[in-house]
Amino acid sequence: MTGNQIKGKGFRGALRYNLEKVDKGVAELLDSSFAGKSENSILKEVQLIRVQKPNLQKYFYHTSINFPPEENLSSEMMKQIGHDYLQANGFTQHQFIMFRHFDADHPHLHILVNRIGYDGKVLSDSNDYKRSEQVLRELEIKYNLVKVVSSREAKERAMTKDELEMMKRTNVPSTKLKLQAIVKDVLTKGRRLTTQEFITGLESKGVRLQFNQATTGYVSGISYDYNGFVIKGAALGHDFKWPSVKNRIDYEQQRDHLAVHEANVRTKSASPEAKTRSINIHRGAHENIAAQKDSQGSDLTALLKDLFHVDRSNPDYHPDMVSDDLTRRKKKKKRRGRSI
Known about the structure:
Layout: E1 2-8, H1 12-23, E2 27-32, H2 39-50, E3 60-66, H3 75-88, E4 94-101, E5 108-117, H4 128-142, H5 161-170, H6 175-187, H7 195-203, E6 207-213, E7 219-226, E8 229-232, H8 233-236, H9 242-248, H10 253-270, H11 281-284, H12 301-304, H13 324-339
Antiparallel strand pairs: 1-3, 2-4, 3-5, 4-5, 6-7, 7-8
Helix pairs in contact: 3-4
């Protein structure tokens, strides 16, 4: 299972969205703590609790729990998992409403919760993402579900929603996905590469390396530069971080000091701004994507075959998490347009 969480200032948007799904027959209401079932009656009940903490801005909690496509779950089991999730996260005395959606190729569950309890106490959101992930791992074991690798253990960072949409439009893998495939190919040549062979192998495919090297020669990190796209190893995934790479090649700090230094010099010379252009995954999703063949003419199709897939159970691809902030920004933009 994977989870996605949003904390916001109001129930209305997410509640209306889910209730409309129910009206359209693509969702069902699994359970609720509310006496009423209409939007207005639920919001009135929420307001009765909220008056206890009128100054709390983000009192609304919305999570989606996503299961792999192969999971065959009854609605009753999904409801029980939802209740276990709420209890394990501390939502034992809180208003909630729970929906199952049927409009995706994987089972998923949405839970809307009031962070203000019936007694007026607010459940702390400290470390809530970490806590949620731990609860999901425990529920996988309890219900004998398909185990999902945690975000800390993920070998390859999954595509973001923006990258996925871009791939749908262009039918071409993102630069990040290409880069993962190239590095993975160089590292799996069937023998342990020397540090120089690792560097040369990537440079021959258009990938330049930027090592975080101290004056003592100690290397603490690595970044990759591919066609102007610069990204840290950690942002590509666990297997692309320097500690993982170092364990897969024949690296020795004193011996390879010069090779690493010279690689840095070549990278800086080819792209002087590379050191300051390191970008995260979400910005990388908006970079221009290259053609199916790279600038050296190397056909990446075979390399991408194992990587070019869509994991719709990943919460990053979940299109129906409603964000109050996003809705508010859109409305503000429309108002500015009218005033011009």
